[in-house]
Batch of 3 targets.
Target 1
Amino acid sequence: MHEPRPAGPAAATNPAPPAGPRLRAEAITLTQGGRRLLDGVDLDLAGGGITMVLGPNGAGKSLLLKVLHGLIAPDTGRVLWDGRPAGQATRRRQAMVFQRPVLLRRSAAANIDFVLRARGRRDRARRDALLAHVGLDAHASRPARRLSGGEQQRLALARALATGPELLFLDEPTASLDPASVLRIEQVVAAARADDTGVVFVTHDVGQARRLADDIVFLHRGRVVEHAPAARFFDAPASAAARDFLAGRIVV
Ligand SMILES: Nc1ncnc2c1ncn2[C@@H]1O[C@H](COP(=O)(O)OP(=O)(O)OP(=O)(O)O)[C@@H](O)[C@H]1O
Ligand SMILES: [Mg+2]
């Protein structure tokens, strides 16, 4: 769904992707009120495929996404894009859908227009295609804040896609959706992946993680306890916490 990306100066001579991870988090810690909320997180994201982030409530999943997206500065550690410190320029190459979407007090269509205009490409056909892509074409002129929770989540996803991100962070984007809408969003995410957008997707839904994941990050108490290819994680989780989580037992 995103726009073709401009080729960098090296692209003409060297079409190979950059070696190493696209996004790397190194030794991230975050402390609030004496509590370690993120505790030495190291993470490499290849920049393609779907990384599903699993973990119990309070594990630090939302905080980690905000650090990766540059919204929270960690106390120690750093985030690198292609080996260089992430900053304003790299932020524009990624987008995030929050656990509780924040939408402008305007129509659904105007929320998308706003993002397209900020990128210098106001385009009604593209806006309408984005709304249809998430199943909101019939709601284009409704005030965004009066949409249902599930409709707002889908609008937030369409808005994120409007930026043409290379990396897309999704924090429980299907948490309040009905089954048909969940399916549609999963199709949208699969389409983004096929379009070479890297997706980092937080969910509590193990079935959803099985359906979508290329790899799994399992967070527990602010630590990345496992980062493994999906098949390996589900067949043979290495940690007791992940085994308990997958078995539906309370993990504290
Ligand atoms: N701004 C903050 N100040 C202090 N503590 C915070 C702050 N934000 C989050 N926390 C705490 O950090 C921990 C991790 O929060 P986070 O929102 O990342 O969890 P999560 O894994 O996303 O959980 P959930 O599955 O419930 O969404 C929680 O214990 C939370 O209370
Ligand atoms: Mg969360």
Note: DSSP finds nine helices and ten strands in the chain.
Target 2
Amino acid sequence: MIEGYRRFRNGGWALQRERWAQLAEGQSPRVMVIACSDSRSEPSQIFDTNPGEIFVVRNVAALVPPFETTPGRHGVSAALEFAVQFLGVGEIVVMGHGLCGGCHAALHRSMAGAEPGRGGFVADWIAMLDEASDKVRSTYADIETREAAHAMELAAVRVSLDNLGTFPCIQEKVRRGTLKLRGAFFTIGDGVLHVMDETTGEFSPA
Ligand SMILES: [Zn+2]
């Protein structure tokens, strides 16, 4: 890790010294990306962005919970609120990915009933995909297939997009045309980004 840091410090950082000096004054990213914590789905790498360009939240399965005011630590909601209301991003991209462990667990309910700290936190988090998972389970006779897993991964992106729409501040900006919500999906093996068509909800290579 430290060797990597030294390469960055002597390479990327040194090359973009002026940009970093500007960024020290503040940030004004135009896009927020919600991605999975999976080590293979790194937004700044996939979109080849510069420092300060994208505001990123990563969590298990790239999920956005619905607007909720129940007690709890609403990390995603806090980041959304900050990006939308204070930074004024013009776009929110939800990027799912292939071979997602969180989506696999949602489809197979493999963590159901686990204690917190032994899979329970994951189970509780991905339970927001239960309805979508039920649909995939009823559509595919064999949920072990790659097709079923893929359907679950795309469904998860749609759930997050739907949940984004439950936030009043997001609804308002989308209605005014100052904020766009986009779905995307990154296949791991062949490294292809798929983008969701707003009207059909279908994904196709960018
Ligand atoms: Zn994942």
Note: Residues 27-205 form a domain with the Beta-carbonic Anhydrase; Chain A fold (CATH 3.40.1050.10).
Target 3
Amino acid sequence: MKDCEMTAAEIMAEDKKYIMRTYGRLPVVLTEGKGCRVKDIDGKEYLDLVAGIAVNGLGHCPEVVVKAIKEQAETLMHTSNLYYTLPQIKLAKLLVEISGMTKAFFCNSGAEANEAAMKLARKATKVAGHPEKTVIITAEKSFHGRTLAAITATGQPKYQKMFTPLPPDYKYVPFNDVEALKAAVDEKTCAVMLEPVQGESGVHPGTAEYFKTARELCDKFGCALIFDEVQTGLGRTGKLFGFENFGVKPDIMSLAKTLAGGFPMGAMLAAGKYAEVFEPGDHASTFGGNPLAAAAAFATVSEIAKPGFMDEVTKKGDYFRAELAKTEGVKEARGLGFMIGIELEKPDARAYAEEFLNKGFIVNPIGDSIIRLVPPLILSKAEIDEFVGAAKNIIK
Ligand SMILES: Cc1ncc(COP(=O)(O)O)c(C=O)c1O
């Protein structure tokens, strides 16, 4: 373990004094990580089934990403987007090639990627001569981030109520309800924005029928289909992009989380005519796609896009969910790939999560009855077995 100049108690006290209380932190100070494991300040090791909430797709400190960051940091870390840089164009080309989208815009987080997506959709309607098309439809229980527009898009009043007034012209529909979607989309609709699998509210996959209906409605009414792939994108669901599970391609897609293997980065990809809508001055980000972030992302995405990588995630994800489903006290183990929601028989998610932590496993409780697992995509079968073994004792 590396030396640390403060104890856990001292760090927690200073945190309380100097950092705003926006997070309900668990009483653990993490200091290092490798692969699927992290260590706390006292040297205790944990198997990390949360991976920075679906960020550390290649595990902690993956060699290819560390190397890319080191090399780029010694060459050119940052320059303005007023100039061309090689890492950014290499990344954009790679993302376009693997997604079938047309062009990319780079930013620094998922919320920013969604902001860019919504701005793009709004401008697209105006460019098309339809300024009356302003309404953005999203799903109840969705999660799209924490900026003012992103909490407005997020169909959960608890994230909105203290921050009103909200930007106007958002409408919410129950997720996976085909008829409700048909009733909601009309001439005023600018965009329909959906997560392929709702993550934050407890891992609820959409259905192919629902997304196909959304695609048809957007085509019929000339509005944009936006997929928020911030959590589902880049391998999480066992496909490179969540939309591939449903055979429905969006017009606009947001990415972040796994994108740069732990380095902060977001992207918005657009297809066809949507790729040509933004002009200089319409949208920007000082840091978006800077050489350091782009190099980290290029290394990460290159690894995830290697032949066979996705097959492994699918295979291991299926095995993981099947093993969990057999566990006493588990009502359901749902999800796709390594995006897993464990629905518990008893509403004790928080108590179980604490016990998992005591036993050296990091999991993410959602509400009273769900535990979310979004582990590194490189989690091995032996590590899955280790967790399932512990779950058998803890959950029952
Ligand atoms: C689907 C989805 N969209 C957007 C976000 C927001 O991303 P960020 O926290 O990087 O702004 C998240 C974060 O959890 C998410 O899961």
Note: The chain has a mean pLDDT of 97.
